[in-house]
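Troubleshooting: if your tokenizer reports a length mismatch, compare your output against this known-good record of 255 residues.
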Amino acid sequence: MSANAVEITDLKKVYSASGKTGKETQALKGVSLTIPQGEFFALLGPNGAGKSTLISILSGLTGKSSGTVKVNGLSIDEHPDEIKKFIGLVPQEFNFSIFEKVIDIVLDQAGYYGISRAEAMPVAEKLLQDLGLWEKRNEKSQALSGGMKRRLMIARGLIHQPKIILLDEPTAGVDVELRRGMWEFLNRVNGEGTTIVLTTHYLEEAEQLSRHIAIINKGVVAVDEGTKELLAKNPGKKLEDIFLEIIDASKESNV
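Known-good structure output:
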């Protein structure tokens, strides 16, 4: 197995002309990134920067225009089905049935990967216990709070025990106390060897959790370095300050 969980080289994505603008949209303009096995990697950028497109390509939901993507050493073009088993996706939007029970949402997801309910149940129980949802397992998901729904999405994304988890704004709308509980859980999962790729607008979250940061802006990589190194190069500044300076600088260069 490759020493790198993800290897992206000169990745480009162009969306066809839309009815609104009549122009093509170049979402990714030659992105290259390497994410080692076991990394906690924050993928940051303003709205429309290309983060969600990159996550969608990695998870197999969107096709690329050009470039190469490898997951655990396998080409996303040649081994798409095998790669899907390596990856767990926690999308930003809730996309489960509100009329299904919590336990069924998690176990049915296991079924997509050919895992029987009997085999998946011990994993589901541990995940739901760890995420504080076990007592809610027989309730319909519509009865859950927003924070509980976020945690349910994480449990569902981890049920097949993927080597890589893609987290797209996993704590959006979650209060501070619950968010910190989720941080502890994610640190534990990462400590057990799972590679985590996190997108978040909470820059404190990225600063606290990640060991490496990439900032994407307007489809290109503006920053790609270790979190500690980035902060050390900018003494006295928080990640939020550094992020805003980078985004503002790119605006000025286009004036």
